[in-house]
């Protein structure tokens, strides 16, 4: 039995997806992409006005597919033929993101170059001495100065046009070169990331217990049933003792998308499979997604815990609903304190949450190890550095005194099928017993 709000939150949660503000953001993003490509690429590589108009219209039509992709997934079943258009929209988004990144890097490099040249010119004028013999009659001096300025200006404009034209072709070539690897890394380059985490409180009898940690799978859109089957096979090959999924398991209406998770019935773990909701489940119907996951034989932890006993030694696995679940629906609440309540003080506490904002609250309420996701590690370069700055717990392992938090970079991806520099991962966390100085002295 799963503990979920009794109220039917499906229609209410679904309303947040179709909110006019969300549609407005996607529309603005589409217009921004079309404008950036037109003024940053088309205007520099196409000289004839007719061709500029033609390519401008084509780019605008491609940009409009963003809206179709984000909205179409609401009411089209993934196994229907019409969903192919949604899939195309997401691949166009992937190409758009790569191209936008390259345009921004090109423009940033040109701004830096322009700034350096301006500084050198100012510095050169200050260092150039004025000789009396160089002084000309005022009218002649002004005429020569004007001619030199015109020549310099024309030369600068010609050089800038050449650089913009050449770099625009470079952006197009770079997009063609980088787009296939971005898709390949997202779809085919999933890594197995192993990490050992020692704790003094972890029972010595359970030293080396293995936890397979998956997060941010986002099935639906361009992540298919076949992809889920591959994730399950790779996870089972690790022979984990426990499997945990820390939210954002899917994107879409449960009635349509939940069947894609069917291969998860084949998960194999000695001491259970546990799941907590992420923010995306609550966008599409938190209650329905909890029921769908529970029907797969996976234990759903909504502000609750389970006691796991291995050979007479016990520890707790706790989990809290997504941090923003209340914002999505008033019937939900993220409550790490309730999840960790009534666990014996001497017992090790493994806590599952989705967002970094829940980590410190979990530590304050007694969690020893917190596993989470949400950040995707930025998903692609250079967004990974922005994520590092924005989140206190962004990616990888963090030690806080005798406690620890581990942030997965995600097993899938969100939005366009792309990753660059931040591959998807299945994490294998080994819990190790760390001997205290007192224990070492007693053994000696």
Q: What would CATH call the homologous superfamily of one domain?
A: Metallo-dependent phosphatases
Q: Approximately how much helix is present in the residues? A: 40-55%
CATH class of one domain: Alpha Beta
Number of helices: 14
The spatial strand order of the largest sheet comes to: 1-12-2-3-4-5
Flag low-confidence runs: 1-18
Quick overview of this protein structure:
The chain has 444 residues and is α/β, with parallel strands linked by helices. It has helices spanning 10-17, 20-45, 49-72, 83-127, 138-188, 225-237, 254-257, 279-284, 286-294, 325-328, 336-340, 359-364, 383-390, 437-443, and strands spanning 191-199, 209-214, 242-246, 273-276, 299-300, 304-310, 313-319, 349-352, 369-372, 396-400, 403-407, 425-433.
Q: How would you sum up this structure, described in words?
A:
With 444 residues, this protein is an alpha/beta fold. It has a domain at 190-443: Purple Acid Phosphatase, chain A, domain 2. Helix content is 49%, strand content 15%. A 6-stranded mixed β-sheet has the order 1-12-2-3-4-5. Strands 6-7-8-9-11-10 form a 6-stranded mixed β-sheet. A hairpin with a 2-residue loop joins strand 6 (304-310) and strand 7 (313-319). It starts with 9 loop residues before the first helix and ends with a helix.
